[in-house]
Design goal:
The structure is a single chain. The chain contains 8 helices and 6 strands; from the N terminus they run αββαβββααβαααα. Strands 1, 2, 3, 4, 5 and 6 form a 6-stranded mixed β-sheet that branches. It is globular, with a radius of gyration of 19 Å.
């Protein structure tokens, strides 16, 4: 699977600076020259992304990028971390890091559907993030992709974010006020998702999607530590 493959690729790398690239994404020719100087063993570099249609190379790929604007975020919990502009863009193709950092963070977690996003949130908690405010990664979109599935199937329920948020909720790093704030956010999300099948009671797909989502939600929220992988130091 995706997670095991990515972890294996990093294990096989002989050098310390790691750049993973998914097969449906492109990186700008000037990606490395602008990001490598920002990398160290305590810093994950995340660049802005832009979407492109598979088969049509983005025009921006042919434009030189001689310098970029960047911003550093110190590690630690902040409620805004879920809403930062670059948070949804933290895919492997848009990040750069060292093998040391990857190993210290435990690599990608096979227990979560979106192991790349979970890894990014872990880094935001325990390491620094440098955000490069220039699109240097281009995410491919094609018919049948997950992105399209979420758009064309209104009964799609986003279970992939539950694991990460509940995992963060359980960490000892959070202050009581932070834990309450995050729990409210988690329960609010569940409530909003619960309204969807009520509005479409005659559609079986909504009920089935919500049933799977609800089981996943309560299993993670009320389950034991065995639901989660080891935490980094």
């Amino acid at each position: 699977g995706f997670t095991g493959n990515a972890n294996r690729c990093v294990d096989l790398c002989k050098n310390d600076i790691i750049k993973l690239l998914c097969d449906d994404d492109l990186i700008h020719p000037d990606f490395l020259i602008n990001t490598v100087p920002l990398v160290d063993d305590r810093t994950l570099v995340v660049v802005d992304v832009a979407k492109f249609e598979i088969g049509k190379e983005p025009a921006a790929m042919k434009q030189r990028v001689e310098s970029v604007e960047s911003e550093r975020r110190k590690g630690g919990y902040g409620a805004d971390m879920w809403y930062l502009k670059y948070t949804p863009s933290s895919i492997p193709s848009a990040t750069l890091l060292t093998k040391t950092l990857f190993r210290e963070m435990g690599g990608f977690d096979k227990n979560t559907i979106t192991s790349d996003w979970d890894f990014f949130i872990e880094c935001a908690l325990y390491r620094d993030i440098v955000h490069v405010k220039t699109p240097l990664c281009f995410v491919g979109v094609w018919p049948g992709s997950l992105t399209e599935e979420m758009l064309v199937k209104p009964f799609f329920y986003p279970t992939q974010g539950l694991y990460t948020k509940i995992r963060v909720y359980r960490t000892k790093r959070l202050q009581p006020a932070q834990r309450r704030s995050l729990l409210f956010q988690i329960l609010k999300g569940y409530f909003m998702q619960s309204l969807r099948p009520v509005k479409q009671p005659h559609k079986k797909a909504y009920r089935a999607g919500y049933s799977d989502y609800s089981k996943r939600f309560w299993s993670l929220l009320l389950g034991g530590k065995e639901n989660f992988g080891p935490r980094p130091n």
